[in-house]
Amino acid sequence: MDSDDDFMSAVSSEDDILPDDSDNDDLSGAEDFDFDDEPDPDLGMSKDIGRKRVAYDISFKVYQPADIQKQQDDLINEVNMILDISKEEAAILLRHFRWNKERLIEDYMDAPPQVLEAAGLAQEPTSLPRLEVKPGFVCDICCEEGPGLASFAIKCGHRYCVDCYRHYLSQKIKEEGEAARIQCPSDGCDLIVDARSLDLLVNPELKERYHELLNRTYVEDKDTLKWCPAPDCQNAIECGVKKKDLDKVVPTVSCLCAHRFCFGCILSDHQPAPCELVKKWLKKCADDSETANWISANTKECPKCNSTIEKNGGCNHMTCRKCKHEFCWMCMGLWSEHGTSWYSCNRFEEKSGTEARDAQAKSRVSLERYLHYYNRYANHEQSARLDKDIYTKTEKKMVQLQKESGMSWIEVQYLNSASQALQTCRQTLMWTYAFAFYLARNNLTEIFEDNQKDLEMAVEGLSEMFEKPVTELADPKLKVEIMDKTSYCNKRRIILLDDTAQNLADGRWTFNVELTGSAPTSGGPSNRR
Amino acid sequence: MASQKRIAKELADCTTHAPAGMSIALATDSDVHKWHVTLDGPAESIYSGGKFGLVVTLPPEYPFKAPVVTFATRIYHPNVTNDNVGSICLGLLKAENWKPASKLLSVLQAVRLLLVEPQPDDPLESRIADEYRRDRAEFDKNARAYVQRYAKGPVKFDGTNVGADAGAAGGSGKRSTG
Ligand SMILES: [Zn+2]
Ligand SMILES: [Zn+2]
Ligand SMILES: [Zn+2]
Ligand SMILES: [Zn+2]
Ligand SMILES: [Zn+2]
Ligand SMILES: [Zn+2]
């Protein structure tokens, strides 16, 4: 799943709160995220008086670069005052202790020399770093010597010429992305080059990069902080959900840049499936990519006349141009049977045991089962992509529509909302199929599939309206229908996610695979070696 | 070029203070960035009696970038790839450990030491590392067979005593990064 979320405008779809008219009567009011001082690690099961968030809602905060800088500065100043050491040393110590201020102060009070040494700080009193010209100096790196050769050394006294020192630092910063742990260039010396020494030696451009990298270590060192993975986004998210919680909650967070991602594994929002299942599923799909390839093809044959039909919109309701046969792109079944109580396109019907007695038959059934879910997963992924293309076209349509109908820009925004709802709901639907693949057959699963079916039907309905030509879109009646359908889709999605998250938190799901309970995180840049 | 002076000095140091059983020469007189090193299998090691060729390549950014050292002679060893490339896994040469003030003399000493004390916990050939840990007799036998087969007679650096087939005696183990 690529993060095709850039289309999302400031109006994000993060109004995931059940509207007042919902059937869950105690859910009410639009409540934004909890912007308290500390992220409270409650897993969305809070029972706040007067308001109840949906079960998958988690608390998090978004920090912009200036916030991140300030947090570090505050900590450095605090340690600088309490321990009576320079700010440079305070910064090195804090980084050494992965920004755990309490532990640093405690350990330092206990045994300052040991702490300083472990952090790569010598114990001599601080003197300002400066370049020096020493008589008889020979640079051990380039072997140059001569009168007037400027040299530099940090506290350990390992002295090198300025050119070599600069070259070394620039390589570490620029090529290796190193900052907090750049050691003295001497073989076997692990003293860290502090920020003040660095500022003295390198040019402004490198200096800026260096401090940027230092900021990164602050975020990377803290378990409660993660970078927003959206390209070019500099924000970080703070969230109290721990690794061990990931079998109980899917911590979807939403950045100020509108990118929605999972705090647990950094992938794009994959609700309702927990991280570990997502990992398993993606691995399975990668392993079985051959079988999967033909499915995600954009063309299929009409089940009636066999003429080739190309899918060019997100909608799964296909009409053969040649014979006018109407069918479902996913199951290739009659469309007329969809949207009725007979609808079971989303459900995999397990054949009775008699058929699957021998190993070969069993493996065929398990392949069929996988294909059923993969088919639908891939289809929604593809549809979301196609819906996005449609949206770019729709933007033009919106301009056209304004001209034709006399509607204002604000008045045509409903198409924008509809498009976003389609994207978000399809992304959810896509993961419901990965989730369902790992669900054991029981009552709870039936309810889940009913919710899935309701959402899917709503989405297909909206998708179909959305693809209407501009001339029809101008009809005020259709506008109202689209708006209603949009909010209905959003509501169905919330109901499904709320229900799934609640059961996940309560540990009520039965999976057909073993969950270890601690899904290893993927991604998350780290310079730690 | 700034690195010329440094390399010349190191070449002089290495030739005058060469580690036991090593001799060092430039691959061609015109290029100080490629060295040919001949190493006698250390007497205290299983490789005793063999003669091994090492190729030391200094990148243009040397000494800011680590040198690359490979075996020109096939060797049965957990930390050397069992192929005709002969890559070595040496902590000192990893980008994060290399320092511009690190010296080639210590690199050569480290390679020699690796023959005396293989590091099976940081292997390039996990199968050979496994064998080294679990069945030393079998490992010793295979290592000696390699010495007999590849490391006798004059050392060649032209790729003629690394063996043509990758799956020679002992087979090629599954490689892991190290
Ligand atoms: Zn120098
Ligand atoms: Zn030093
Ligand atoms: Zn962002
Ligand atoms: Zn996740
Ligand atoms: Zn047809
Ligand atoms: Zn269908």
TrEMBL record, chain A:
The GO molecular function terms of this record are: ubiquitin protein ligase activity; zinc ion binding
Q: Where is this region: Disordered?
A: 1-47
Which catalytic reaction applies to this protein? Answer: [E2 ubiquitin-conjugating enzyme]-S-ubiquitinyl-L-cysteine + [acceptor protein]-L-lysine = [E2 ubiquitin-conjugating enzyme]-L-cysteine + [acceptor protein]-N(6)-ubiquitinyl-L-lysine
> Which keywords accompany this UniProt record?
Metal-binding, Repeat, Transferase, Ubl conjugation pathway, Zinc, Zinc-finger
Q: Does the keyword Transferase apply?
A: yes
Listed Acidic residues bias regions:
1-41
Matches recorded under PANTHER family:
RBR FAMILY RING FINGER AND IBR DOMAIN-CONTAINING
Q: What is this protein called?
A: RBR-type E3 ubiquitin transferase
Q: Which organism is it from?
A: Lasiosphaeria hispida
UniProtKB/TrEMBL annotation, chain B:
Q: Does the keyword Nucleotide-binding apply?
A: yes
The protein's UniProt keywords, in alphabetical order, are: ATP-binding, Nucleotide-binding, Transferase, Ubl conjugation pathway
Q: Which SUPFAM superfamilies match?
A: UBC-like
Q: From the record, give the transmembrane residue ranges.
A: none
The keyword Nucleotide-binding appears for this protein? yes
Q: GO MF annotations for this entry? A: ATP binding; ubiquitin conjugating enzyme activity
Task: Describe the location of the UBC core domain by residue ranges.
Answer: 2-152
**What EC number(s) does this enzyme carry?**
2.3.2.23
Which InterPro entries does the entry link to?
UBC, UBQ-conjugating_enzyme/RWD
Write down what this protein is called. Answer: E2 ubiquitin-conjugating enzyme
Query: What organism does the record attribute this protein to?
Result: Lasiosphaeria hispida
